[in-house]
Amino acid sequence: MKNVLVIVPFPMGDEDLARRQAQMGAVDLGPGIEFHYRPVRIGPKNYSSQHDMALADFSILDAGLDAQAQGFDAVCIDTMSDSGMAMLRSVLDIPVIAPGRHSMLVAQMLGEKFSILMMWDRWKMLYTKTLGELGMEHKCASMRSIGVTPDNKALLSGKEDQVFPLLLDAARKCIDKDGAQVLILGSTTMHEAHDWLASRLDVPVINPGPLTYMLASVALDLGLTHSKATWPAPLAPKHAMIRAIGAAGATFLEDRA
């Protein structure tokens, strides 16, 4: 049995975590692999600024630091920002899969140009960073926002009648006006809209969270992981310090609750 850790990028309880776990309904990977969801214990309220991104990187590093020692065979990161991916790849030998870059790379398998659908403009910096790292700016036809502040816990629950038509209108503009041949949902928090949108559009729509599960499974089946030539191990690991900072941050949040 293969075990994969899915790191959810915000602290949350079981009810909110279940909305994230619902992404598993989009894929059937058979009986030989299990996915275990773990929220971070610290982190920003939302991913809306460079300040938030620094906290996001650390919170996901803290959550996944001991994944390999705990017996996990791979890690999936449940955010399109790919926060913490590079850091975890430097300290883990098991595959670490994040949805941002992989959604863009898979989009290139399916069409020439892709667009990214997003909830609000503040997320644009996340995709711009990844596009730059991949050298794929010219492959992105557009990024279109529907101007709705995201809810990283309730997701789209209760807002379907408002949000789904806005996403569909933005998607059609991406296709008809911008020339997109593939669409990417800009957040794993948008997964509840995937099937509704995909059934109404004539181009592929990538659901980033389930994509990472499939890619983790493929990596394990093929015996592949990231290159240590790209993500070298630290010369002086500070794992105990990282754990201590994470514990102190969690205590701080508990005291303020």
Automatic annotation (TrEMBL):
<dbReference type="InterPro" id="IPR001920">
    <property type="entry name" value="Asp/Glu_race"/>
</dbReference>
<dbReference type="Pfam" id="PF01177">
    <property type="entry name" value="Asp_Glu_race"/>
</dbReference>
<dbReference type="InterPro" id="IPR052186">
    <property type="entry name" value="Hydantoin_racemase-like"/>
</dbReference>
<protein>
    <recommendedName>
        <fullName>Hydrogenase expression protein HupH</fullName>
    </recommendedName>
</protein>
<comment type="similarity">
    <text>Belongs to the HyuE racemase family.</text>
</comment>
<dbReference type="InterPro" id="IPR053714">
    <property type="entry name" value="Iso_Racemase_Enz_sf"/>
</dbReference>
<dbReference type="InterPro" id="IPR015942">
    <property type="entry name" value="Asp/Glu/hydantoin_racemase"/>
</dbReference>
